[in-house]
Task: structure prediction
Amino acid sequence: MLKFHLKVFLRRISKNIFFNAVNFIGITIALTVAIAIFSFVLYESSFDHFHDNGDKIYRVVQDNVTANGIDHWSTTAYPLAVALRNDFSDLEVTQTAGPTKRLLTVNEGGTPKNFEVDHVLFADTSFFKIFNYGLIDKSIWIQGEYSIFKKQHNAILLTEGLANKLYGKGDNNIIGREIELNNNSALTVAGVISDPPLNSNIRYEAVINFSFFRENNPYPVNNWSGNYQGYTYIKLPEHLSENDFEQRFPAFESKYLSKSDDQRINYQIQSLVDIHNDTTYSETIESYAISTTMLNSLIAVAILLIIISGANYINLASALIIKRSKEVVLLKMFGDLKRQLVKRYMLETSFLIVIAAVHALVFGQYLIDVINNGILGIPFNIQITAHVYALVGVLCCAIVLITSLYPILIMSRFDLLKVLKNNGVYNSQAAGGLISRAMLLVQFSFVHIMVVGVAVVYFQMSFLKNKDLGFEHDQIVTVTLPKADSLKMERLRQSYGNYHAIEQVSFSSGVPFESDIQYGTTFRLSSEPVEMGREAEMKVVDLDYAALYDLELIAGNWISKSNMLPWQQGFNGFVVNETLAAELGIAPDELIGHKISINEGEVEVIGVVKDFHNMWLKDQIKPCVMFYWGTGFNSKVAMRISNTADKEQTVNFIEQQWKKEYPEYNFESKWFNDRIDNVYELDDLTLSGLKVSGLIAIIIGSSGLLALMVFYSESRTKELGIRKILGATAGQLAVELSSGFMKQVVLSIIIGTCIGWWLTSNWLNTFTYRIEMHFLIYILAAGITLMVAVLSIIRQAIKSSSTNPVDSLRYE
Result:
């Protein structure tokens, strides 16, 4: 029986190849995108769910209360972990530092080999008790033992991937070997462990015992006021809830924090499994966060495409049923019951949907492989899981059921006498019935919503990338410094400054628009109480910083040699931005000479610069204090390259000079404009995804509209021939054919514009600096949708209206 139905199905397909091809392609594309999106969303929602008792693991985070609001930090002071262990014996506590980039040197066969490792994590001995990766492997230990790591303060654990890189694959005897850290500290290999899964917020290639970090960094490890890339994690006992534990913090803070810190710092805990999808607190270093709102938006896109393709299918399937009306009534005459007709039709629909789903799974897997291979610049391990297969099955059943309801309803109403009297066609206007018009309205409303979304996101991203940032960034290249060595920096300054293609050189702790690490501090007038401290960015700069970036002074002077004191004597003179002056409520001219106190010391303001964007444009400009403080904080050297210079040759020279000073490290350079582009990478990806989704929606919608127009014109072939004989022109007939569809399209544009405006307004509200919701944007979007609709139907309308009336009268 199934074989018989399959033959019938193939015969139906071949008889109406165009209509069925449109349906097949639409459903396949929609399911392909849905499979990729659902797999991506499940992967992004799975971060850190693999740990045993992961729902009881929390990250301690910090809310900083300032005069201008609350800042949310994911990092905490290093002494916090020790204090938590001392006061709460029922807790399991671990702390980490990093991960950071470090140089590892191995000496095999008498030849030292240097490896720059991006993710070196310092972790205490409780780390692998709390994060046991129990659902990944029975044991993460490939070589070595946990007890060795606990005993040796200079122990280092290597992941399997890094061990293979350092010693070659298959070396099973590396325990006890020495590795040199940054050319000045000896470490002992205590074990080889499995690579952490990619869906983990805690990234590492090597783990060093935290006691080693504690010995070599006494100031930050004992400082309660500062956060230095440190994270504190706890595991609550079964009897203790999140809310109950947080009630312990006020007394704890009063005990350990200074009076001023106690007033500004509030500790909270954040569930480990929520970290990746909660952007309230900054994401973990060397990882990334994607909000639940973004994931829900992706799901909405997938659902929209399925609805568009489903509406398309219903309209075309209804049209084909009407075309088969003579066949249906003849089957009824020969004894087919209504339920047999329904069964036959649903089987035919199921065959088409199943074939589309199989193709979608193949194409979806290909699309996922492309994403996993790094097309987005982030390592992924997305899989089509059993949940996705089950979801595809549910979607297929839902599509079969929903898309069959209306065509079956039409089929059930076929009347034998009316169909035969009408030469085998039942109600040729049925394709334009109420439900069909509603489907077309829904379909193009969603198409237009996506067109509006693409237009708004495009103009917003263009606005961000072209907005004046308040400083010069063209022709500027930045290079990372691995060590703060004053002699090496001075030699680099001399060699770079004397090169003909380099116009200016500056060493600093960070560039104006910093997307990596920013140093923070609090500021207040020296006459204000401590609790009036406000958050600010701190930049350690040199004499040439303002000239290099063309910062505009609006009051006072820039840093001069008289402000340059030896490192031990601190600093002498602050340059601040307009925002900082505004938060103090003092005009820039009047602020000169006032003493400002920050966490690091207190000196007079010597200059005020015009605001420049030190944060990405989703956020407001942050108060900024700049000063010279030796070379200890310098991690970047920036150079302005001449417009006429050979860029490649100049960068090669920069690398050669850099390698003379740091031969053991890998050279990294980046053009400033590329740094800015990287900041908006996620938004660019959003725009690219919307473009693709919008294009898919347009293709599905327009092809469906074209197929419906073909059927509608074919069903009125004889009528059009008679009208032409009676004097109607081809133009009048074309308008007659297309007017009903165009009214539906115009109405869908109105509905889509209203919904699109609401959605895009909410999205734009996440940006501090955004475009105005100008009506021209919506006119442009409406024009695109209208043009797509016109191009979809106008050719068929003209073709049908231009047919020889003699041929039209012979058609039926």
Notes: The longest strand covers residues 92-108. The radius of gyration is 34 Å.
